[in-house]
Amino acid sequence: MEERARPAASPGGVGARARLRRGPVEPLLFLASLALMLQAPLATQYLWWRLGDDRGYNGTGRAGGCTNGSDEAGRQEVETETSHWSLYINLSGFLVGLFSSTLLGPWSDSVGRRPLLVLATAGLALQAALSLLVVTLRLHVGFLLLGRLLSGLCGDYNGVLAGGFAAVADVSARDARTFRVAVLEACLGVAGMLGGVVGGHWLRAQGFVNPFWLVLAVQVTAVVYAAFGFRESVREPRPARLLTLRHYRAVLALYTAPGPEKSRKHLALYSLAFFLVVTVHFGARDVFVLYELSSPLCWGSDLIGYGSAALHLAYLTSLGGLRALQLCLEDSWVAEISLASNIVGLVVISVATTTPVMFAGYGLLFLSLACTPVIRSKLSKLVGEEEQGALFASLACVEGLCLLTATGIFNSLYPATLNFMKGFPFLLGAVILLIPASLIGMLAVLDPKPDYQHYVDTS
C-alpha cells in the first residue's frame, strides 16, 4: 500500500497541521449537497409529471399533489412507473460509482484530495446539465439515466463524501473526530433544508426549467471551489497511477490483512451497522416524495419542500444532541439514542394519513442522524493513519451498496404494498434498525475498552 504523506510529529509539523486546518472542505460539501438536494426531489417530481402527462393522466400537475376524482388505476400506474424509473436511474449510477469511488479514494492518498473532489463535482455538474436538457427539450427520460452513468464514472456524490471525510480525518485530532465528522454532516443538513424549501417554492411558481438552471449553477460553483478554493489536506501530494489494482487491494487489505483480531472484528461489525443504518436512510428518503405526492396526503411541491427541509433539519438537531449527549455518555450510547429516535419516527410516518402526523414523524427523527458520525469516527479510529484514505473509499463503496440495496428494496416494495399499507417500507426500515442497535450495544457492553486501542494509537 502506498504510504500517505502526513504532518510530522514535530513542532513544525503541528504548525503545518494548523495551517491545513484552515483550508475548509465544508463549503465544497455544502455546495455539492445543496445542488443534489435541489435536484433529487425535482427529478422525482419531473418523472411523476412527465410520465403522467405522456399517458394522459390528469391527476398530477407541475405543482404536484393530486386532484379529486382522478382515476385510481391511472394514479397507481404513474406511481409504479415513476418508482421503477427511479430504480433504474439510481441502480445504474451507483453500480458504476461503486467501483469508481473505490478506485479514486486510495488514489487520493497519493495525489491529494483535490483531484478526487474536482473529478466528482465535475461529474455531478455534467449530470445536472443533461437533466436540464431533458427538461428544456423534453428529451426521453432515459437521458436522465445517461447523466447518472456519467456522474458515476467520475465518482458521483460518494466521491465527494469520500474526499470530504478523508480531508477531515487528515487534519482532526482523534478525540475531536466524532464532532468534526458531525459538523461536516450538519453542512449536508443545512444544504438539504435550503434545497427543499427553495426547490419546492420555485417549482410551484415557475415550473421545472429555472430550478434545474440553479442546480447546474451551484454544481459548477462547486467545481470551481474544488479546483481553486479548497486547500489540499494531504501535505505532500505526489503523482500516482489511477488505473491500477493496487487501489482495490488497499481497500481489501482493511478486512483481510493480518492484524489484531479485535480490530478486524470491530471493523467488520461497525461496517455492517453502518451499511444497515445508511440503507434505511437512503431507502426511506427514496420513497418519501412518492408517499407525499399520492393519496391521502396529496402534497404539492411547496409542502414537499417543507417536508424535505424538516427531514434535513435532523442534521442540525442531531449535531446539537450529539454535542450535549457527549458530555455525559460514551459515543456508543449516543448512537443507541439516535437509533431509537429513528425507529420511532419511521413508525409514526408509516401510519401517517394527515399532514400534521407526517410532520410529527419528521419531528421525532430529530436525533436520527447522530448515529452515522459516531460510526464513521469509530471506524476511522480502528485503522492506522496510513489506511485512512482506503477506509473512506471503503465507506464510499459501502454507501454505494447501501443506495443500490435501498433502491432495489424500497422502490420495488413501495408499489408492491400500495394495496394493503402504503407506509410498509418505513415500518420495515424501523425493524431493520433494530439490528445495528443490537450490534452497537453488544460491542459497547461486551468490550467497552477494546484491546485494539493501543494498536491504533501506536500504529
From TrEMBL:
It holds the Pfam family MFS_1. Its main location: membrane. Keywords: Cell membrane, Cytoplasm, Disulfide bond, Endosome, Folate-binding, Glycoprotein, Membrane, Symport, Transmembrane, Transmembrane helix, Transport. One of its GO terms (biological process) is transmembrane transport. The keyword Membrane applies. It catalyses: folate(in) + H(+)(in) = folate(out) + H(+)(out); (6S)-5-methyl-5,6,7,8-tetrahydrofolate(in) + H(+)(in) = (6S)-5-methyl-5,6,7,8-tetrahydrofolate(out) + H(+)(out); pemetrexed(in) + H(+)(in) = pemetrexed(out) + H(+)(out); methotrexate(in) + H(+)(in) = methotrexate(out) + H(+)(out). One of its GO terms (molecular function) is transmembrane transporter activity. This is Proton-coupled folate transporter. Belongs to the major facilitator superfamily. SLC46A family. It is found in: Apical cell membrane; Basolateral cell membrane; Cytoplasm; Endosome membrane. The chain crosses the membrane at residues 28-49, 85-104, 116-137, 149-169, 181-202, 208-228, 267-284, 304-322, 334-353, 389-414, 426-446. It is a multi-pass membrane protein. It comes from the Eukaryota. One of its GO terms (cellular component) is plasma membrane. The keyword Lyase does not apply.
